[in-house]
Amino acid sequence: MAFGYNGKILRVDLSREKISIDSPDDVFYRRYIGGEGFVAYFLLKELKPCVDPLGPENKLIFAAGPVTGASIPGNGRNSVGAKSPLTEGFGEAEVGGYWGAELKHAGFDAIIFEGKAESPVYLWVHDGEAEIRDAGHLWGKDTGDAQRIIREELGDKLIRVAQIGPGGERLVRYACVINDLHDAAGRTGMGAVMGSKNLKAVAVRGHERGKVADAEKLKELARWLIQNPKTWSWAHDLGTGGAMEAFVELGNLPIRNFRDGDFSNAVALDARTIKDMISIGMESCYACPVRCKKVVKIEEPWRVDPVYGGPEYEALAALGSNCGVDDLKAVCKANEICNRYSLDVISTGDTVAFAMECYENDILTDTETGGVKLNFGNAQAMVQMVEKIGRREGLGDILAEGVKRAAEKIGRGAERFAIHVKGQEVPMHEPRRSRALGLGYAISPTGADHVHNLHDGSVASRNPYFEKLAALGILEPVPRENLGPRKVRALIYVVDWCVLDNSLLMCCFLPWDHIQKTEIVRAATGWNTTVWELMKVGERITTMARAFNVREGFTKKDDWLPERFFHPKTSGALSETAVDPTKLEKARSTYYEMMGWDENGVPTKGKLEELDVAWVAHMLG
Amino acid sequence: MAFGYNGKILRVDLSREKISIDSPDDVFYRRYIGGEGFVAYFLLKELKPCVDPLGPENKLIFAAGPVTGASIPGNGRNSVGAKSPLTEGFGEAEVGGYWGAELKHAGFDAIIFEGKAESPVYLWVHDGEAEIRDAGHLWGKDTGDAQRIIREELGDKLIRVAQIGPGGERLVRYACVINDLHDAAGRTGMGAVMGSKNLKAVAVRGHERGKVADAEKLKELARWLIQNPKTWSWAHDLGTGGAMEAFVELGNLPIRNFRDGDFSNAVALDARTIKDMISIGMESCYACPVRCKKVVKIEEPWRVDPVYGGPEYEALAALGSNCGVDDLKAVCKANEICNRYSLDVISTGDTVAFAMECYENDILTDTETGGVKLNFGNAQAMVQMVEKIGRREGLGDILAEGVKRAAEKIGRGAERFAIHVKGQEVPMHEPRRSRALGLGYAISPTGADHVHNLHDGSVASRNPYFEKLAALGILEPVPRENLGPRKVRALIYVVDWCVLDNSLLMCCFLPWDHIQKTEIVRAATGWNTTVWELMKVGERITTMARAFNVREGFTKKDDWLPERFFHPKTSGALSETAVDPTKLEKARSTYYEMMGWDENGVPTKGKLEELDVAWVAHMLG
């Protein structure tokens, strides 16, 4: 077995209460790496086409990577994947913290959950062993309570818990999986899949540090990071969300359901304000000095419990500006509720924003909202609605289905306010500003998603990020508004690397460049791997995720943006420009051709063979 | 300007006797690297479609790479390119020695020759300057005499001369360019292009060591090589050609025009025999401790002058076994004549073998051979015929056209003995043995060529070469006789890297792996380059060469092997197996699809854009 892995994957059949261990060979590990790669592999290989994502035939995969748990910053993460109940396609999300590292220390590289438990259970994984335990007493509990009880009953305060709250139990389609109460595998509704399996939590504890091939080299790279705080001090000082006003000026901040450009009090939501007013410190992930995660404590008008951490940029924008809300405490409370209930902050915020726009356009009435005045900017209403979603209460029950299904149920033209791609709500970076990002949203296998994408659009200019991209052969900047072939090429290369990051489970905030990351993988595994091989892993997994969606029936028309982005914002920076659908269509074709997909976006046999996954070709008929 | 380059490319208009200097920008250098890359760029960019390769509209490019001339072994090489008079397509060959390093030290990265001199000239390049000089007194001279005279008249014994002998002057279609009298840019007839331009020689001398970004790192890598002689001692001890008997047993050695498998006295041609009997030492290339180049001295029955070096494996097989000749001294003499006259040993040997088979089948008569008994195995006849080719004397005049054109002229069914791809004679590794090699011969833009290819077929087994390939993601060996998708994939990756080597001008005999080579480029240039970027350079150049041929009218049917290889050898190791044309056709389609070429082998627009050479797409209509 290669260094860096345990060589063991837990397989838990919840229906039969059977636990077994897979022992894949070295080539499996090197070809699929971990995280999103494992998810793509198992979903394609083991799922029958077109199963119900909330039925027992779906599988839920938790996976780490080769460096996860090693003594080097940025490697405590894990990935969670399944067929998505939100998109009915490829579902996968990553999460920071400690859980991934703990899983590795407990002796496993991944866990595959199959079937459905008869009644609520949780899995207890510890030092090479695993046990399905009753969770009847935990069901219905907030994540905070559940974690406390699990740690108490197992008698170890250092147990790491990945779990769902009542939102996941109630199958909110965008429920997330919460680690350590505040870190979320947020997108694509993995928490709902967990709920559908009657699986409340996965508690892990391990004492075995895995062996790496070159511990000295890892130390050297860790030392480089520590000695270069300039490269990460932005994250250390404020975490995400420290440029809210600039984002308004640039047009990047979504405002009132992606409609408007004006937002006068953005500073109220800024990470600097949080630091000054309500922060009680910063939290870390495993072995990381960056400590980028805000912890906030508020006593009134809402009590916000610091065990649930604090809001990241995506929460500040989705629950804040995109709902027209500039009340920071309200946003922190809503963020806390999301973490208590295990709701994805992006989809939750977007769904509330959608409902607000419906309400203001008389598509939703006071009767339907249960009397809640769901106007943009009503902080109290926003917080109430988030809680209703978590409980599937009243209108919350409809909104818990996500904007696409909610709009279909509501009818009356609500569909035009449902800002999603493939059923997944759009994250907090404006496609009207960064055109490559928009194309990325349109094509991403998980629906609108910013972790597979060129989210900062910085191929537009020469800056440190751009200089790094030269390592991939992107030698000249392309203007942000451009969507020509050179931009598409840059997007593809960046996406492939992002997908690799999602598979290695390396944090994308850390400043290591492509060469250093490759050195890290080499030091962990002992493989003579290269940026070439790793980029091809990214391309392989991107293409496998694509193939999964093709098999599920997705077509070219699903690779498209919501109509709203083809029109300018009503005001502000992007009030005179929008995505040009003709150019988007052309860029989409270019993307397909560059990827070796046919004109309908279906990977060609030759491309699948070139990516060494010929077995996938047979699935595409 | 990046480290590693001079930033200057000489442009010599021979018609107008005008010399100018191009100063490309950094991005040009990084995108096209050097050598074959520069050739592909200038041929596509500057040649009108379908020009006469022997007319003044053809251009002849001499090019070095970023590391050429730096103090590290394996980097004295240069590339020579033009539209090929042999194939009428993409022409390019590389050559070892000192000339490339000297060009860099003289202040230039490449030279582009345009037009045609009115009367014979040579170019004298020295320390940033260049001068067109009369060569009337050199024309008709053997390379040895010409070099001596040039050095004498310029007063410097250390001048390096790349030149043609009488074979190039007389436009033998497979004339080569000879450096230092014994190193040949052998394939595709670059010497004939030189002759057609009335250009006898390019003499260079320079005293300026270019600056590299990280001299310490280069030293460290050079030190690694010197301290690991086990990785190159095979080349140091014997050079090429030390396994002739094993090659007979494996079926790899071409025997009697690729017809037979038996060759009883292969040991007579072996490098070990040369070492024991006629070697007077080994020659080196610039800054290289390996010294892999044999020097032989013979007094009788032929005088072989050691200034012309000695035979490599390709010469031993082409002029020896492939002509049925086991007379080592005769082979050494023929090799010397090739170097005197500037003839490619492979094409020369193959052409003589072709004539022998014609003769034995009564297609050529004694009248036509001028009384030479041109039977397989007649050493004397072989030597005579090589000289006749160099002089274009009698039958030699027809054979000087290469087997394809000679067969057309001779008629009478001679075509079935003309073993070539796209007009270029097949090199000395058996496609019936290594199926990927055969596919490589068929598709190579230069016609049958082993320096763009998987010439040792070692993807078949786990050995040190194979272990290196894991760095490219080739994780499992594929049997040698297999021609399925995984073999095609391996071939493509290996070809892309070979083409990169041809562009970097790094010797492929040196044991550095992909990671070390990338470190060398990084240390030379200061770029944050990676194996990904470099592989993409290889893919870019492969595709550009393809595009050149498409523009010149080549089609899918040109990507094919001679009929002979679809039948077993008459005897020996491969007497019961041959290339299966159905499998070859399928593999060709797979190759196209994997490369992003359409079903006719034409690069798609998307692929060209992905390779950042969108400008090429416009040329393909």
Note down, in words, how this protein is organized:
The structure is a homodimer of 621-residue chains. The first copy, chain A, is of the alpha+beta class and 621 residues long. Chain A is built from 25 helices and 16 strands. Chain A folds into three domains: 9-205, Aldehyde ferredoxin oxidoreductase, N-terminal domain (Aldehyde Ferredoxin Oxidoreductase,  A, domain 1); 240-424, Aldehyde Ferredoxin Oxidoreductase Protein, subunit A, domain 2; 435-620, Aldehyde Ferredoxin Oxidoreductase Protein, subunit A, domain 3. Helices cover 39% and strands 12% of the residues of chain A. In chain A, the strands form four sheets. A six-stranded mixed sheet of chain A has the order 2-1-6-3-4-5. Chain A has a six-stranded mixed sheet with strand order 8-7-12-9-10-11. A two-stranded antiparallel sheet of chain A has the order 13-14. In chain A, α11 (313-320) crosses α12 (328-341) and α20 (485-504) packs across α23 (581-595). The longest helix of chain A is centred in the last third of the chain and has 21 residues, at 531-551. The first copy, chain A, is globular, with a radius of gyration of 22 Å. The model of chain A has no long low-confidence stretch (mean pLDDT 96). The A-B interface holds A 27, 30-31, 467-468, 470-473, 475-476, 485-486, 488-489, 492, 513-515, 518, 527-537, 589-590, 592-594, 596, 604-607, 609-610, 612, 614 and B 27, 30-31, 467-468, 470-473, 475-476, 485-486, 488-489, 492, 513-515, 518, 527-537, 589-590, 592-594, 596, 604-607, 609-610, 612, 614.
